[in-house]
Design a protein that fits this description.
With 136 residues, this protein is an alpha/beta fold. The strands form two sheets. It has a five-stranded mixed sheet, with no helix packed on it. A two-stranded parallel sheet has the order 4-6. The longest helix has 20 residues.
Length: 136
């Protein structure tokens, strides 16, 4: 019985380490790290100031904070996306200091739990009236 408990505990630990240690494809380009806040471990992807013209692909669903400020992203929706997978973990996105001119309807559909979005110092003049509809 003790042997089975040890084996089960070992498998649970391996599964946990696999998730914690797993890297997003985006981590090949950006700085990825874990930070403990409010007693929870949260994953951050920092792509700030890298001269990116699009959002890196392969952002995992458990990412909490996505920093994209200070890049060369001009469009949200036509040429760059957050991907097609729902990113339930993302609560914060910083897209400030990018020359963003266009945001299409549906761009934020994949981040239903978004709590803060920074778009200051961009070149956005108008937004589609339904661009934030999927957000609560």
């Amino acid at each position: 019985m003790l042997g089975r408990l040890k084996a089960a505990a070992y498998l649970a630990l391996v599964a946990f380490i696999g998730k914690v240690g797993a890297k997003s494809e985006a981590c090949e380009t950006c700085n990825c790290f874990w930070r403990s806040t409010d007693g929870k471990d949260r994953k951050y992807i920092d792509c700030s100031g890298l001269g990116l013209t699009e959002i890196p692909s392969g952002i995992n669903t458990w990412v909490h904070n996505l920093a994209l400020q200070g890049n060369d992203i001009e469009d949200l929706g036509l040429t760059t996306t957050l991907g097609s997978e729902t990113l339930e973990g993302i609560e914060h996105i910083n897209l400030s200091n990018n020359p963003i001119r266009n945001v299409t309807s549906g761009f934020f559909d994949v981040v239903p739990n978004l709590k803060s979005l920074m778009l200051h110092h961009t070149e956005i003049h108008t937004l589609p009236s339904d661009v934030f509809d999927p957000l609560t």
